[in-house]
Design goal:
Strands 3-2-1-4-5-7 form a six-stranded parallel β-sheet, with helices on both faces. By secondary structure, it is an alpha/beta fold. Helix 1 crosses helix 7 and helix 4 packs parallel to helix 5. The protein is globular, with a radius of gyration of 19 Å. The chain has eleven helices and 14 strands. The model has no long low-confidence stretch (mean pLDDT 95).
């Protein structure tokens, strides 16, 4: 069996940079190539890096062959709010890039592929509380449509060609090491930055808008746990529901005030409110917990304490 060599596409995003570090800790910096369409910045400058446009299919195949890649983590995508500004480009980027990766995995016989889905694949008639693993999926954004279609493509390549492709339906992901990336749940990232900088925040969602959320540390853990699990334990080949906590903006603000008493929040819902209203309020992730032992570590208070302490200790993240 070949030595594990990983290509991570979309490493410059919110999840990508931290997942790159998680992969370094397991496989070493020499065996992980981070890539993105832009130049490497921050922590990504410390490891191997390729500036690369995933829409260049031939370049993708060339990179894989040249570096003896055995696994791909494909994170590049336009997110929900950003995708609504240019739906055709969001469809083209999100779908064609996934198909290029799946084709490469099949034709070049890669061992594993990781591709993220999202709660955006659900929709207004999906059960909103404890959303089941298998349920109605009627997304209302082009981002969600690409995630639902992508899940089916992943399952197709597994069943038709035996490609070991694995996926998680992420809830809103919250981290402090990179700025928000254009998602509807990104208020829960931006609010911490503004709490430190300005002691106030104007939220684009209503105070009582509950959404499933997850701290970035748990998101990285879930991804690596799934990819390290034996193939026979991975029973779902569309995408696994994954969860940790659910909260609304008012609860985040209340928790922040425990650490920053003079923090204040106001509310001015915009077009993202309709997107959030179409998504689940909480997630049933019992399949992931049963099949490969998923367990989260952070709740709202633990996460808030960790983020605020890190932002105060490392002001470079606020720049």
């Amino acid at each position: 069996m070949k030595q594990t060599k990983i290509l991570l596409i979309g490493a410059g995003g919110q999840l990508g940079s931290e997942l790159t570090q998680g992969l370094w800790s397991i496989y070493g910096k020499d065996n992980v190539i981070a890539s993105d369409i832009k130049e490497a910045t921050g922590i990504l400058q410390e490891g191997r890096y390729e500036k690369f446009d995933v829409m260049q299919r031939d370049k993708l195949f060339e990179l894989i062959k040249k570096n003896d890649i055995t696994q791909i983590y494909h994170l590049a995508a336009l997110l929900s709010a950003t995708g609504e500004k240019d739906p055709r480009w969001a469809w083209k980027l999100n779908m064609e890039s996934l198909l290029f990766v799946l084709e490469a995995a099949h034709e070049l016989k890669l061992y594993k592929v990781y591709w993220p889905s999202s709660i955006a694949a659900f929709g207004p008639t999906t059960p909103k509380t404890n959303t089941p693993q298998d349920t109605i999926m009627d997304p209302t954004t082009v981002y969600g449509i690409t995630k639902l279609a992508g899940e089916l493509w992943c399952e197709y390549y597994f069943r038709r060609y035996g490609v070991d492709v694995r996926s998680l339906r992420y809830p809103g992901l919250i981290g402090y090491k990179t700025p928000p990336g254009g998602g509807t749940t990104d208020y829960a990232v931006d609010i911490y930055f503004k709490a430190i900088r300005e002691k106030k925040y104007e939220c684009f969602l209503a105070a009582d808008t509950y959404l499933p959320m997850m701290y970035m540390d748990d998101a990285v853990k879930a991804t690596l746990d799934l990819m390290e699990a034996p193939a026979e334990k991975v029973k779902v080949r569309t995408s696994y529901n994954i969860g940790a906590m659910s909260f609304c903006p008012a609860q985040v603000a209340s928790t922040i005030k425990k650490f920053i008493p003079d923090f204040s929040i106001s509310y001015k819902p915009d077009f993202r409110q309709a997107i959030a209203d179409s998504w689940p309020k909480s997630i049933d992730d019992s399949a992931a917990r049963h099949d490969w032992g998923w367990q989260h570590q952070f709740g709202l208070e633990e996460m808030t304490k960790d983020i605020l302490e890190n932002l105060q200790q490392h002001p470079q993240y606020l720049a």
